[in-house]
């Protein structure tokens, strides 16, 4: 096999390098919350993190590279899925976790900034896609387990069910402005569970 070329910021370091990465990503998140992607500056991030500018420029090289690594780190740090023993219980746990994240004063603003950036930057869009793919894949097994228990049809697409849970919550965050409360999370989970039981998310032939 040939060597694998990595993008700046994609190597998972240890020791002091790991501490530098953590400090820089924390600073980048702070700057994103305060100023948005368009106000993100590598020199400012370096200052906030207390590291040299050359370190940041050498490792991440660009704002999109830094945002991409921030998203990768967020995916790594996300909580694992729950296993309540029922589809509704698992989907409710997922919905409440998404809701807690999006309703958080820092995390909600951070996601808005990154999603906005992804609409016009391919690398950020790719990183955002990786983030959501990681999270959907993390929770999909709860739908597979429900299929084994007979709660949903065996041909249910688990990824579509998980996407259906979070979609109404992201709509509230980005479009409607309706409250992101626990009741909204519970309704999203219940709706997805009912639809899944009725076969709405059956895999289709392509």
TrEMBL record:
Q: InterPro entries, per this entry?
A: Homeodomain-like_sf (IPR009057), HTH-type_TetR-like_transc_reg (IPR050109), HTH_TetR (IPR001647), Tet_transcr_reg_TetR-rel_C_sf (IPR036271), TetR_C (IPR011075)
The highest taxon in the source lineage is Bacteria
Can you name one GO molecular function term for this protein?
A: DNA-binding transcription factor activity
| PROSITE patterns per the UniProt record, alphabetical | HTH_TETR_2
Record-annotated HTH tetR-type domain positions:
18-78
Q: Which UniProt keywords apply?
A: DNA-binding, Transcription, Transcription regulation
DNA-binding stretch(es), residue numbering of this chain: 41-60
**Cross-referenced Pfam families, in alphabetical order?**
TetR_C_11, TetR_N
> What protein does this entry describe?
TetR/AcrR family transcriptional regulator
Q: Which organism is it from?
A: Halostreptopolyspora alba
